[in-house]
User: What shape does this take?
Amino acid sequence: MSERSLTRPDAASWHDVECSGYAADLPTWRELARRHGRGPVLDVGCGTGRVALDLASRGYEVTGLDADAELVRALEARARARHLPVRGLAADARAFDLPERFALAIAPMQVVQLLGGPAGRKAMLARVLAHLEPGGVLAVALADPFDSVPVGEALPPLPDVLEMDGWVLSSTPIEVRDEGDAVSIDRHRQAVSPAGELAEEAFTIRLDSVTPAGLSEEAEAVGLIATGLLRVPPTPEYVGSAVVLLQASR
Assistant: This one.
């Protein structure tokens, strides 16, 4: 259930429908926090707090950054309700500025594939580097929706469904399209109100195509050194992902 009274499906509600059920990567972020989280952790593209709240519940202070202020407000409300040490910041990952530095920054759920190509990724990488302690680590998740599946055989998963305050929200991936430099995922969203009224909309997510090797090259160009690669295994509902580890050399 939502901490707010839902009167219509908003950005935070759809984010919860499409992202909150994913948990396969949480052990990876927990292990990275255990290794490197000596102080606050920076969660880039935090959304409504799927990872930030999980880490905070384990005793880590977290700063969650997202370009969507509505998602950040939802994160902060949930942290307050659970008395968790989370601070939210509504800012563009390519242009943010904070006074503190972090030993660990994370970018889960393919955040770096939503930044508008190489220039956007490099801008984000440079801003995160400016906020890392010497030797600090940025861990970046990358996914390929066609991973291990031939393009012509990629099948969409079952709908993501969530009930909130009497509303039933569902989001169904209906097509995955390879566009060369990006992959577009078309979704069909449906919202059924407590009174039974149905609203529908089409929504497309465009993920830039980038490999771990390509990201490592972009990171090294701004002063981050690739030091390792972790794997998050696929599940029946979700593709797997690669987590690229990048370290500040200074």
In short: The chain has two domains: 11-145+210-248, 152-207. Residues 148-154 have pLDDT under 50 and may be disordered. The two ends are 44 Å apart (CA to CA).
